[in-house]
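Re: your question about Response regulator

S., sorry for the slow reply, the queue was backed up all week. Below is exactly what I fed in.
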Amino acid sequence: MVQKAKILLVDDRPENLLALEAILSALDQTLVRASSGEEALKALLTDDFAVILLDVQMPGMDGFETAAHIKRRERTRDIPIIFLTAINHGPHHTFRGYAAGAVDYISKPFDPWVLRAKVSVFVELYMKNCKLREQAALLRLQLEGGGEGGHGKESAGLLAELSARLAAVEEQAEALSKQLDDDSADAAAVATAAHLERKLTGLRRALDALEPGTGAAPTLPAQT
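Result:
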């Protein structure tokens, strides 16, 4: 069973949260509500999220301040943030959103299809990263048990399975990168996809180094 990605929806107005849920329900992912910046930060302490949809205008801690807190935390700094706002004070207001760490800045009323398409890109990138971390964990397990007597065939079988799984992820990542190029996607999404491809390349090199006869000590990619 494939684990669903979590999407954090942050808005102080219940009707806005309901509207976001209606738009994003078609993605079939886990939607988590937060009615304030403080509540959002609390949710981020325990759960991992693929993307955050963050309202700018909120009483108390607004969207800009909430984003600043998110980007200061090592655990959450790399989570993509899409700002949603009902006001537009021109380029300076938009620049403040990007300066706070947003990957996108959308003014209300927004096109539901466009918002859903943007969110789906980050969900897919998140799922690819999860698969990559899973492959790295299995590889480490293989390395730890590979030197023990009587496990040669098991190690070889696991290595072959890892290579096949990685090949499938590589194919999906390549297709996603081509889709981003064709759709002229946001620079942040393209950069995230490129980062994923670099991690996949590092893992492939580590697997190749484990092939019999290479004599090379594999260096595993960092899990970031």
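The longest strand covers residues 6-10. The two ends are 24 Å apart (CA to CA).

Happy to talk it through on Thursday.
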